[in-house]
Design a protein that fits this description.
This is Cobalamin biosynthesis CbiG protein. The protein is of the alpha/beta class. It has helices at residues 10-20, 51-61, 71-78, 112-123, 132-136, 141-148, 156-166, 182-191, 249-262, 283-292, 301-311, 317-323, 329-337, and strands spanning 3-7, 28-32, 45-48, 64-68, 90-94, 100-105, 126-128, 150-153, 171-176, 197-199, 211-215, 229-234, 237-243, 270-276, 295-299, 342-351, 354-361. It has 13 helices and 17 strands. Strands 3-2-1-4-5-6-7 form a seven-stranded mixed sheet, sandwiched between helices.
């Protein structure tokens, strides 16, 4: 998860530095120019002149925004850009004294509620979470969707099922047995004391007064949606790969396996590989894609450079001098995700002669 931390005061900057220690990869801290030198330069810091410009940029660039400032400021600044709970980044607000952390936006799909709990525990703050299902302690289907990288369809069914849950109704879960990751989803639901029903072929007819969640391939979802049924379809997992010249297939497969393990998945969960066109003849990379049985796409350095600029990706001087661009794995994965972009499951991670980034498409 790519994270931006924003603050406006010395106290806010210091809290941002503490919060960054609990954020994957440390995140990027955005501070006003007048606060230059207020925290250690060991952090990844960007100084700005106008908060409004930074808010606009970070909202589309990052998976999560942590704002150490007044809630009112954040709400007014974000209002023009809020689009949908399915696509907006997680947004959290902390007071600069670190007493409260508020899950403000994208609590379920975007993961703001879970991130709020995690960061509040790290700095001993009180988490403020207002989504009804969380307050009452029931597990909402869109929470499971967020955890398992599943896309809810249709959006309107989320409210129908969550309302039913709050009224004491039970939700039945079904999984298409021909889904490649069916055993994984079944195990994850079982860990939450949910006994899913497996089916093959046609979708079982909905029972009288039954509310249900069906995990299946997107292409199999009916065009007409039954109002008490929420379909959860797998998002593609994109693996961006950068590597040294002459690296072996074994090293690439090992790196992909270790990277997937870091997010609790198997390499079989990868849907597509992506890299720079500079690596299109790299035998080890081509062989790894063939072994996995997955397509690999190579993108021109101009497109990769555009993604680096668009998302403010960190670059390596060595890689830039070697192949012309300073970030391959993250940028190539974003190229493969297309205009809608994606949520970073694992930022660029270096293995032996291989760099991997994992991205869930939005």
């Amino acid at each position: 998860m790519r994270t931006a931390l924003l603050a406006l005061t010395v106290g806010g900057a210091q809290l941002s530095a503490r919060l960054s220690e609990a954020v994957e990869g440390g995140g990027t801290i955005y501070l006003p120019e007048r606060l230059c030198g207020s925290i250690s330069e060991d952090h990844d810091i960007v100084y700005f002149t106008h908060l409004a410009d930074v808010i606009k940029t970070t909202f589309t660039r990052y998976d999560a925004m942590i704002c150490v400032m007044a809630t009112g400021i954040v709400v007014r600044m974000l209002a023009p850009y809020v689009q949908s709970k399915l696509y907006d980044p997680a947004v959290l607000v902390f007071d600069e004294a670190g007493q409260h952390g508020i899950s403000l936006l994208s609590g379920h799909i975007g993961g703001a509620n879970e991130l709020t709990r995690k960061l509040c525990a790290a700095v001993n703050a009180d988490p403020v979470i207002t989504t009804a299902t969380d307050v009452t302690g029931v597990l909402a289907p869109d929470v499971m969707a967020g955890r398992l990288a599943l896309r809810p369809v249709p959006k309107s069914a989320i409210q129908v099922l969550n309302t039913a849950l709050l009224a004491g109704q039970e939700i039945a879960y079904y999984i298409a047995s021909d889904l490649q990751q069916a055993p994984f989803y079944e195990a994850q639901l079982h860990a939450q004391d949910i006994q899913a029903r497996l089916f093959r072929g046609e979708i079982p007819p909905v029972g009288v007064n039954e509310y249900r969640v069906i995990i299946m391939r997107a292409k199999d979802v009916p065009n007409e949606h039954e109002p008490r049924t929420l379909y959860l379809t797998p998002r593609r997992l994109i693996a961006g790969v950068g590597c040294r010249a002459g690296v072996t297939e074994a090293k690439i497969l090992r790196a992909l396996t270790e990277a997937c393990c870091m997010i609790g998945r198997e390499p079989s969960a990868i849907d597509i590989l992506a890299s720079t066109v500079v690596k299109r003849d790299e035998r080890g990379l081509l062989a790894a894609a063939e072994t996995l049985g997955r397509e690999i796409r190579f993108y021109p350095n101009e497109e990769i450079a555009a993604m680096i600029e668009r998302y403010g990706l960190t670059e390596s001087d060595f890689v830039r001098q070697t192949i012309g661009v300073g970030n391959v794995s993250e940028a190539a994965a974003l190229c493969a995700a297309g205009e809608a972009g994606g949520r970073m499951a694992l930022g660029k991670t270096a293995f032996e002669k291989v760099t991997v980034a994992l991205l869930w498409e939005k």
